[in-house]
Amino acid sequence: MSGKTPITPGGGGAIPGPAGGAAPPSPPPPPQKDTYTVLFDGKPVEVPRNVNLIEAAKLAGIEIPHFCFHPRLSVVGQCRMCLVEIEGIPKIQAACTTPLKEGLSVKTKTEKVVQSRAANMEFLLINHPLDCPICDQAGECKLQDNSFGYGDQRSRYDERKRQYAGFDRTMIGPHVIADMTRCIQCTRCIRFCQEIAGTGELTFLDRGGRTLVWTHDGRPLANDWSGCAADVCPVGALTVKEFRFRSRVWYLEKARSVCPGCNIGCNISIENRDSIVYRFLPRLNPEVNDYWLCDYGRFLSESLNVRDIQNASAREGDAEVRTHVPGAIERIAGKIRRTVDSTGPTGLFFLGSANLSNEENFLLRKIADHLSCGNRDAIVDESRLRRMKSRTVWVEGTHAASNFAGAKDMGLSPLPGGYGLQDVLSGKALPEVILVADAAFSKIADDPEKVEILRRAGFLAVAARTANALTRAADVVLPAASLAEKEGTFTNVQGRVQRFDRAFLPASPIRAHWEVLLLLAVALGFGDRNWTPTDLRRQIQEQVEGYADLTEEELKGGILMKKGTFVSVGAI
Amino acid sequence: MSEKVLLARVGRERSRSIETYLEDGGYAALRTVLTGGWTPEKLTDEVKKSGLRGRGGAGFPTGVKWGFVPKDTKGKPVYLLCNADESEPGTFKDRLLMEEDPHQVIEGIILSSFAIKCRSAYIYIRGEFYLGARILVKALEEAYAKGYLGENILGSGYSLDVTVHRGAGAYICGEETGLIESLEGKRGQPRIKPPFPAVWGVFGAPTIVNNVETLACVVHIVNRGAEWFAKIGRNEKNSGPKLYCLSGHVNRPGVYEAPMGLQMKELLFGADYGQGMKDGKKVKAVIPGGASAAMLTEEEIEDCPLDFDGLAAKKSMLGSAAIIVMNEDTCIVDAAQNLAKFFSHESCGQCTPCREGTPWLHKVLTRIEAGEGRISDIDLLEKISNQMANGMTICVFADAAIAPVLSSVGKFRDEFRYHVEQKRCLVGPRARDRELVTA
Lengths: 572, 439
Prior knowledge:
Chain A is α+β, with helices and mostly antiparallel strands. Chain A has helices at 53-59, 111-126, 142-150, 188-196, 226-232, 295-298, 325-343, 358-370, 404-409, 421-425, 448-455, 469-473, 513-523, 533-543, 552-557, and strands at residues 35-40, 43-48, 83-86, 93-94, 105-107, 170-171, 176-178, 202-205, 212-215, 238-240, 253-258, 267-273, 276-282, 312-316, 319-323, 348-351, 376-377, 382-389, 394-399, 433-436, 459-464, 476-479, 488-491, 496-500, 560-561. By secondary structure, chain B is an alpha/beta fold.
């Protein structure tokens, strides 16, 4: 068995049941070896046992074109695009429905296979509109890709194309627009709603050449993950209203990021162009959000484009005047120094945020440490329960920001003898200086009564992107970056430390929160102006319990987990 | 004329009632098996020895099929489904059996259920057979009342329930996995095989699906022995009595019983059967096994035994033994277009080649029939057909759909050419238009 190509197992789905119902008969007892040797076009390849043939081929570097197959949805074998020849079976076979076994010999390049692919492409296109220039799916359309790769340039179809009057360009839910003239009846959306969302809003109606996908009884496609139905749609039949016709997808840059919506921390791709965020798409992480993203998180994308605070400003008497960032930093540092000199560090209060990265919260804590100030806190609003299906379990999100766990880990809780936000709000403590590292830390910041209490401090400084009651009340406001404009790590509800990348630079003079905090630290005689988030991460590894194992390499995969903190709600 | 076995009681007064059935020796086979010490294995062996092949269309040996039920079902029940969806155009034999002699069918179901250790059987009956469903329900009530169904049948300790389930009108629900899906309350769409129903059938349990006529045959195999059954017919691979559904341009269409392997010419022209062509016209084409069987020409029906292997030798099939006869006035293009329309209407829509291919074939044939075809369309029909079947789809519907198209284009190409070139029909106005012309 020489010349084998070793392949590392990836996440993948075994073949679930036939089109009808539960799983097929239970597989034979677990074998000793966890791989099979499969021949692809005569070349032996070791593949993991628990993947579909299409995925196994992909691992071997062979593309088997397909439409209806999706790694997390049941296998229905009905698009017929993945047909291959299997040695020993006279008829051509669908790869997705062929169980892997030792010695399976798969032929993907024979004339019969090539012809069957061309035939399927011809069949799929006879009724599909050939108007890609006006279709929003263009550029990320499997039909386009497979047509280009495996279809013939010319069609022999000469009749009228099928129309679905009344079933075109119709909103079938709050976010999804359906256009059945573009549908290729792959049933991925139906299976998503049935098997992942568990809500089953979509179904096939009618049959044969008149088959269409629609909602049951006209009830809307309104589950918490409805955008994913459009994600899994390989063509332009289901599109997301919020993104439709806003940008051609090939103009979009992608940045690896983490959803800011809740403490599940779903992995996303921030799709942007010219410093504007156009959409979030889920980014595969089998342990967190798998292939999915909830609608709430998905449509937070637009909120990243909101910017009220463009410049640093400072209050001079009753007037708010524009200033520059170094000047504003110096005002804060000066006030802190004077307060320490006069009343000692007990007059200072530092408030972090679950919206900020571990690096930023860590830096804030280091500033407090440097000043020997134990008055520090980070709070987060509870949110409605959010649920996300990872590969194996449902993960639950309970809080309205991604980094609640991380903020606490970084040491943003009152030290013994110090006080926290509740003490300030209840009037038990009255600091002289309050530094709020993120003005959007909670709904409290937009509650005039609560803000009035915070305002009692002699000096209130905030870093902010959007305006609220707190920024209007502050003595110094520093412009700060959005999630898309900075990098860092969040720690999710599972204790998983996940890195997010910067999608684009903020417009000057806006800076990332960590830069603002670093400027302040330097002004207070601490830290190094040249520190980067990577340097801060290194310090976190050395100084924060449970974070020692973090390596940059692992963080790139975004799947490093703090030991012993895995939280789930039971396997399904 | 040969002895009637399956149709022996058809035509008898009150043939549907259990009283007349018992008078005629009904439920004797059941008594033999349940009180005569027969084991399920013995019954299965007997059916295997008889050479009985499935009468639904595929002709798979029934006893062998029963043997596919796993010995250890891991606590799952075994189901028998009686396929009474009879939806193949030209087929009306099961309907006759159910409407005229329902107890013969029910006895067959009980015996077969016993053979596969099934405690719950279903009759999946075509939705349009409302009368048949009513008759079956009444007959089941009678059988329950007499103790042939229910708990502890004839004191044997064997229990069985039979339920009638009416379909909602889809050809594809006659395909066994489509039937299973439909019975489960889902869309009638064939499943991916394997797993086969004998291992993973209805409700995820081992399931055997048998045709009505097949089940009726089991009664007579028990009563008269496997050897008797095996001797009927042309050879041991094509054995037993067979019902033939004769329709079309013959003098006497109808359901005829004959030993398997009856000559086609005998069925068409024999005094006991079709009694010749209507108005003395010539035969142009014959569809021997329902709409999904390839057409045969007049030459091909010479020495054409109507059984599984006889028709396979002529590259057609016995199918459901629905013999549709077309005379010399029939426009083959019209016939092919009509059949293509049927298959286009009935495709379930899950597989791309069938969902898109069947309407395409219909559109091209419609164009040719309307005199708007191009000469290239004739080749196109063959090319479309050849890229739809032979593994391109989950089930064999597409293979069925292309059979009439490929056989008509292949055997009557000149007629298609005439249609395209002359923009009219070789045989004059279509039959349905002819009356308008003469009137």
